[in-house]
Amino acid sequence: MSCAGDEDDPFPVDDCLFAETFSLENQYHLFGEELKIRQVFGANLGVAAPVWEAALHLCRYFEEQSVELRGKRIIELGAGTGVVGILAARLGAAVTLTDLPLALPQLQANVSANMPSSGWPSPPPTVLPLSWGEDHKNFPTDWDLVLCADIIYLPETYPLLVETLTHLCKNGAVVYLSSKMRKEHGTPGFYEECLPSRFSVELVRRDDQQNINIYRASLRTDQ
């Protein structure tokens, strides 16, 4: 199995599902917080438009395991609608949400819509563009947590993601990755071969019904 590939985009942005632009707002009750997340379908957002089930699984995992987020420095990769990072910010984390430039307006709108009435308990979330393997070195390395929800679906991006994670985790950050395990897109291979090439990887939650895994990873000390 190779870490890179030339498969077609499994979620083409011009898919008929996204042919017409419309928005949908859902409310989510997570970790004692109520979030209002708008999903903008169309406008070429493609996979950045919806709230994916793997993102909700990661939020629920943090709640069930009482993962301490308050006061943590957190960066989310491929944030999409921002539901995971926004939840962390509502709980008191200092959060930077990143995605490709096209996704940032939706992301920023959801950040603004979810500011608590009393203001953010920590610095307001920052929304920034980040293309894996290209401009990751513009970002610092002093994170506590790196969050990734359903971003493992294009094999050609896997080496770029590992390179980006390696940079972000230089000073000991822990990565949480929640993924739908799509065999046809090589998702299992990313966790079996690509990520372990640089990281110690542990499966911490498996949902057989939804075929969703949550992993915790840290940069190997023998690098």
Helix content: 10-25%
CA radius of gyration is 16 Å
Give the helix tally: 5
Biggest β-sheet strands, sense, barrel: 7 strands, mixed
Could you tell me the CATH topology label.
Answer: Rossmann fold
How far the N terminus sits from the C terminus, by CA atoms, comes to 22 Å
- Give the helices and strands as they follow along the chain: EEHEHEHEEHEHEE
Shape: globular
Which CATH class? Alpha Beta
| Regions with little confidence, pLDDT below 50 for 5+ residues | 4-19
Reported CATH architecture: 3-Layer(aba) Sandwich
Strand order of the largest sheet: 5-4-3-6-7-9-8
Task: Decide which structural class fits the backbone.
Answer: alpha/beta
Output the CATH homologous superfamily: Vaccinia Virus protein VP39
Overall pLDDT metric: 87
Number of strands: 9
Strand content: 25-35%
Overview of the structural elements:
With 223 residues, the chain is an alpha/beta fold. The chain has one domain: Vaccinia Virus protein VP39 (Rossmann fold, 3-Layer(aba) Sandwich), CATH 3.40.50.150. The chain is built from five helices and nine strands. Helix 2 (83-90) links the parallel strand 3 (73-77) and strand 4 (94-99).
Summarize the structure.
The chain has helices spanning 53-64, 83-90, 104-113, 158-168, 187-194, and strands spanning 22-30, 33-41, 73-77, 94-99, 126-129, 145-149, 174-180, 199-207, 212-219. It is an alpha/beta fold. It starts with 21 loop residues before the first strand and ends with a strand.
